[in-house]
Design goal:
Largest sheet: 8 strands, parallel, barrel
Oligomer: single chain
Distance between the termini: 29 Å
Structural class: alpha/beta
Low-confidence stretches: none
Shape: globular
Number of strands: 8
CATH class: Alpha Beta
Mean pLDDT: 92
Length: 307
């Protein structure tokens, strides 16, 4: 199962289409139970996701599952004066009530690129891997340039990247070949662009007016294929197409965030349907858009933006 479960909604009111706010703890328990039954085995976490790690930790004790999830967590952004990650990592372990996790990523790529103690910081995560506190180490990035620079500087195992039907930069042949050469796996996030792809055009803030052409093209293709926008959004990672031959091997997990168990079930069903859509490489390529004002949510200037 390539789907992994994002947990930011468990600790924050997150996403442009999220009208429910932070997910209730009992609903989180229902989501986790369903995720396990669907074969989802990985949770994407972070110390910066409000109290989500504490909620997950308490639920693991109150309502233990037969098989614990693999945990990917992230080191919060570090200031130039911070040169130790041990306390931050230990806090995550304590919150999650774990003694080790699957992977630890730097949440902010700039910490590995520009921090005055960047080599020392990386040596610390390498030590955690050596001592089997984590199985893999890596980074979360926003741009292919960040991925390329870091992959050439450090022996990383895992990179979290944004990929969606508009943002196809990370599934280019160049990036996939680099990952293959460096034995790097990708975890895909931002598949629905914080819910933007699933929101009706007339419900969007005026900020998105310059991008209505692309949003309309996406909606029209879904109508033409007689599928939901959810199914079409998932096609970019579910489809096996000739121009993306390495994609299936390099993309290890696809992170989805939901607010209810019902939503998770809908996503899982749509993912299977997306595999069968009669799509061409060209139809997917036509929806690609390199305008950062559209594909990078941190640049959105809307009242509902959560960054």
């Amino acid at each position: 199962m390539k789907l992994a479960l994002g947990t930011v909604q468990f600790g924050l009111d997150y996403g442009i289409s999220n009208t429910q706010g932070q997910v209730d703890k009992n609903q989180v328990a229902d989501i986790l139970k369903l995720a396990m039954s669907l074969g989802i085995d990985t949770l994407d976490c972070a110390g910066a996701y409000g109290n989500s790690e504490q909620i997950l930790g308490s639920l693991s004790k109150e309502r233990p599952l037969k098989q614990p999830f693999n945990i990917v967590s992230k080191i919060p952004a570090l200031t130039d004066k911070q040169c130790s990650i041990s306390e931050l990592f230990e806090l995550s372990l304590k919150s999650l009530q774990r003694d080790k996790i699957e992977a630890l990523l730097f949440h902010h790529a700039d910490n590995l690129l520009y921090h005055p103690k960047k080599e020392k910081l990386f040596q610390q995560v390498q030590a955690l891997k050596t001592h089997k506190m984590v199985n893999r180490i890596g980074v979360s990035v926003y741009s292919p340039e960040q991925l390329k620079s870091i992959a050439l500087m450090y022996p990383i195992d895992l990179v979290q990247v944004p990929v969606n039907i508009f943002d196809q930069r990370f599934i280019s042949t160049e990036v996939l070949e680099l990952c293959q050469h460096k034995s790097i796996k990708l975890h895909v996030r931002s598949l629905f662009l914080q819910g933007l792809l699933l929101t009706e055009a007339d419900e969007l803030p005026n900020y998105f007016l310059p991008y209505r052409d692309k949003l309309n093209a996406f909606s029209e293709l879904a109508q033409y294929l007689n599928c939901s926008k959810l199914t079409l959004a998932l096609a970019i990672v579910a489809q096996e197409l000739p121009d993306y031959t390495m994609k299936s091997d390099i993309i290890e997990k696809v992170i989805v965030g939901v607010c209810t168990a019902k939503q998770l079930n809908e996503v899982a069903t749509a993912y299977q349907q997306a595999k069968e859509l009669p799509l061409s490489v060209q139809e997917l390529a036509n929806l690609a858009d390199n305008r950062l004002g559209l594909i990078n949510p941190s640049l959105w200037n809307t009242e509902t933006n959560q960054g």
